[in-house]
From TrEMBL:
Record domain Helicase XPB/Ssl2 N-terminal: where: 550-672
Protein name from the UniProt record: Helicase-associated domain-containing protein
One Pfam family cited in the UniProt record for this chain: WYL
Natural source organism: Streptomyces longisporus
Keyword Nucleotide-binding: yes
Record-annotated WYL domain positions: 773-835
Keyword set, alphabetical order: ATP-binding, Helicase, Hydrolase, Nucleotide-binding
Molecular function terms from GO: helicase activity
Comp. bias intervals (Polar residues): 753-763
Keyword presence, Lipid metabolism: no
Ranges where the record places region Disordered: 488-508, 747-770
PROSITE patterns, alphabetized: WYL
């Protein structure tokens, strides 16, 4: 059986792959399929473009990237043994030898490397990006080769170096450079040469060996430098600049391309171990607090929240006010605001005086059971690209980034959150890792390159993900909860061995945990819905049951010993003010809060009945007196629009108002014994009189009392913000199968052998024929049943080549079976640029 010939190009290497291998490539590099390439040659060309290669390199783990960097400084092509030597050095490294096949397979799968083990070739664009150059130093710290460094050197100077190292002179520079390269690559001869160097000269080499390989020299170098320059151990690259040749550096390094090779990911360091029940209970408590915080936020904005800045978002002052209202720090307040926005519960109302308010979806959300409400919040957090952590920072134009404003999307955020939780899911139940070890693991999986080294965005995203997951109740005490694992779609942890002691509560020994990395694939929308429902079912039994009662106390307070049922909580929010929160909520009744309930249309009788029905203790007499007293005064004064007026049947009360110094700001004047008027608007007049201790009621133009119900201001229907994708989405199995079928068919059309005619060229360009020749060839093919190769231009002007079997030619159209598309199609003849017959074989 004959061995297939070695591929001569990346396109040929892709052509030799099976469909599963092509699917793996397109899944790893989805940008290659947007749009679908016409054939494998176009796929190979696209895989070698700079933008695509940069994106692929950024998604390699540290060891795979180090392997690519080693290939960039190796010969082209390089053998597997040469690559192994660059990775493990002359002494070898069993861990590197065991991990190298996996890294090489990753590079091959992603079409960054092609060829057999005896002729490994790094894609040219990747070599240009990773190979050393003065403008872009290599991460390996290596410099140019002897051949590259001596490219501009005079032949006489090269011969002087050859003679100085004891090599015979040659007749040309090419052979001289080759003999010098061979010397520097020979371990024994190089050791003998360096043995002659002085300690000072060796010290110079030691400073340059791990990079950067460039140094500065004066016009009259010191003897230690002169000795190195004379023997080519340092080569000049520019006036005053010298470089350590790559071959010399590799000898000094013992053959290693990198100072530190990391074939294995760093282990996670467990800092504490908790019982799973404790983790789940702690996370459930945080989940309940999260729900209460979001409700409190949006309830505070019921009558219209802060105004929207002209550039969009919350002002710094409004964010501070929100933080004070929620009793949290400003960054935490920004997180809750952004979470409500991501879940579609909060938006701008679109009015002329644009404000933020709850959406109609918020009312629907409130009707859901608590566990389902949490699952909706957690799922929104997991998939959102808006990142609250950057609030307060600066954008590219040095503008401050505000909460709910533009510029907060970070496309990598969902992937980082998902990966952080996956790492936690791979630990034993109840294990809490250190944040430093999680960040080290993520940096190994996606090492920083180029400009990213100055801005570790993934590291910051991971840090925020850990703290946000704890606040949201996805984790408890730093460990992943059972409902958090279900939300992620991760499999249930394997049961512990019978001879293993149960996890103890408290700090761990900070020992690294070596485990098989858990890879949890992102979920489809259907799978996400299922995972959210499962997470809600697991959380529901852990949440406290809502109560239908409070404990009234004689100091005009009510204590809610737990969460309250929705109607009771809503009514208490109107009738009383929240004084303190925690395990139990304390409400305080004040004249203002009772008046608020009366303004909402309640009567004193309604309030007495409500308190009697929902209190486990007798209604205290002071509270009864407070309600009756406020109700007796409520509505005795009537305020309407003049700009505004006050009327009262009791002119004594109006005299009291006019005599009060606090009424001076209202500028009241008497129109009649029972009527006062002012230029202030009714709302200002109402607030002023209430501040003076009165209980006025607003009335309409007809004289009817206006009831201020507790109905909240809502925005028109709004959709949640769409996540900003990090590049093209990963194609699903159906799209992959269709794309591969189209690429294979297009490749068959482009590589099918053709008969040589005057209209075809040996280079395989599209055929060019006259309309008469095209028509005649088409008609002949209909009679013979032969397939044809055609050039075709579609309505958008895109040219392509196809293999068709004509069935019918009439009316200026040809109907044919298109082998490229694997279906019967009709083509206008005027769009066919040329036609050629396929070869018989």
């Amino acid at each position: 059986m004959s061995t297939p010939a070695a591929p001569r190009s990346l396109a040929e290497a892709l052509r030799n792959r099976d469909d599963a291998s092509l699917a793996a490539l397109l899944r790893a590099r989805p940008d290659l399929i947007t749009p679908v390439p016409t054939d494998l040659t176009q796929l190979a060309t696209r895989a070698g473009t700079r933008a695509s290669v940069v994106r692929a390199l950024e998604r390699l783990d540290r060891f795979a990237l180090q392997t690519a960097e080693a290939l960039a400084v190796a010969a082209d092509p390089a053998g597997y043994e040469e690559l192994l030597g660059l990775m493990s050095g002359d002494g070898g490294d069993p861990a590197v030898a065991a991990a190298l096949p996996r890294a090489l397979a990753t590079l091959r799968e992603q079409a960054l490397v092609w060829g057999g083990d005896d002729r490994l070739r790094l894609v040219r664009t990747a070599r240009e990006l990773l190979a050393p150059s003065p403008q872009h130093p290599s991460p390996t710290g290596l410099g140019p080769t002897v051949q590259e460094a001596t490219a501009g050197m005079s032949p006489g100077r090269i011969q002087e170096i050859v003679t100085a190292v004891g090599l015979p002179s040659t007749h040309d520079s090419v052979s001289a450079v080759a003999s010098l390269t061979a010397l520097f690559g020979d371990r024994a001869r190089m050791a003998a040469l360096l043995a002659e160097a002085s300690p000072e000269s060796r010290e110079v080499l030691d400073r340059l060996v791990w990079g950067p390989p460039y140094g500065q020299v004066t016009a009259d170098p010191a003897p230690r430098l002169r000795w190195l320059l004379d023997r080519g151990l340092l080569l000049p690259t520019a006036p005053g600049t010298v470089v350590l040749p790559r071959e010399v550096a590799l000898h000094l390094r013992g053959g290693r391309a990198h100072r530190a090779v990391e074939p294995l990911p760093p282990a996670l360091e467990v800092t504490a171990a908790h019982r799973p029940q404790v983790v789940d209970a702690t996370a459930a408590g945080q989940a309940y607090t999260a729900l209460a915080t979001v409700e409190e936020l949006l309830k505070d904005w019921d009558e219209g929240g802060p105004t929207v800045l002209r550039a969009g978002g919350l002002s710094v002052r409004d964010l501070k006010r929100t933080a004070v209202a929620l009793d949290v720090s400003e960054p935490v307040a920004a997180f809750w605001v952004e979470l409500a926005y991501a879940a579609g519960l909060l938006a701008s109302d679109g009015e002329a005086d644009e404000r933020y308010a709850a959406t109609p979806a918020y009312d629907e959300w409130l009707e859901l059971p608590a566990a389902e409400r949490w699952a909706q919040l957690a799922q929104s957090w997991l998939t959102a690209t808006r990142t609250a952590g950057v609030v307060g920072g600066r954008d590219a134009k040095e503008r401050t980034l505000s909460a709910l404003g533009p510029g907060l999307d970070r496309s990598a955020a969902p992937e980082v959150r998902h990966r952080v939780l996956s790492l936690l899911a791979g630990l034993p139940e109840g294990a809490s890792p250190s944040a430093e070890s999680v960040l080290a693991r993520l940096r190994w999986e996606r090492p920083l390159r180029g400009p990213q080294q100055n801005d570790d965005l993934r590291g910051r995203l991971a840090t925020w993900a850990l703290s946000e997951a704890e606040m949201l109740g996805v984790t408890g005490r730093g460990a992943l909860s059972a409902h958090g694992r279900a939300l992620l779609g991760a499999p249930a942890p394997a049961p512990a061995p019978k001879d293993t002691e149960p996890a103890q509560e408290g700090p761990g020994d900070k020992l690294p945990v070596h485990h098989v990395p858990l890879v949890v694939e992102p979920l489809t929308p259907t799978e996400q819905a299922t995972a959210s429902a499962t997470a809600g079912r697991l959380l529901a039994p852990l949440l406290p049951e809502p109560l239908d009662h409070v404990l009234l106390q004689a100091d005009l307070t009510a204590v809610a010993p737990g969460p309250l049922k929705r109607p009771l909580a809503d009514m208490l929010d109107v009738l009383a003010d929240v004084e303190s929160k925690g395990g139990a909520t304390v409400y305080r009744f004040t004249p203002g809060s009772v008046r608020r309930a009366l303004d909402a249309g309640r009567t004193a009788t309604d309030l007495h009945a409500f308190l009697s029905a929902h209190s486990r203790t007798p209604v205290p007499q002071p509270l009864t007196y407070l309600i009756d007293d406020v109700a007796r005064k409520h509505g005795h004064l009537r305020v309407g629009a003049a700009s505004a007026y006050v009327r009262c049947d009791d002119d004594t009360m109006l005299n009291e108002i006019m005599a009060d110094k606090r009424a001076a700001a209202l500028r009241l004047r008497r129109l009649a014994p029972t009527v006062l008027a002012t230029q202030a608007d009714p709302a200002t007049l109402l607030d002023g009189l209430r501040a003076m201790g009165f209980a006025p009621a607003a009335e309409s133009a007809e004289g009817d009392v206006l009831i201020t119900r507790a109905d909240a201001h809502r925005t028109p229907p709004r959709t949640a913000p769409e996540p900003v994708p990090d590049g093209p989405p990963t194609p699903d199995a159906t799209l992959l199968a269709a794309a591969i079928r189209a690429i294979r068919a297009g490749d068959l059309a482009s590589t099918a052998p053709r008969k040589q005619t005057p209209s075809t060229s040996p280079t395989g360009d599209l055929p060019r024929t006259t309309p008469a020749e095209t028509l005649a060839t088409m008609q002949a093919a209909v009679l013979t049943g032969e397939a044809l190769w055609i050039g075709y231009v579609n309505a958008e002007g895109a040219a392509s080549q196809r293999v068709i079997a004509p069935i019918r030619v009439e009316g200026g159209f040809v109907t044919a079976y298109d082998h490229t598309a694997d279906e019967v199609r009709t083509y206008p003849l005027h769009r066919v640029t040329g036609v050629a017959e396929l070869a018989d074989d």
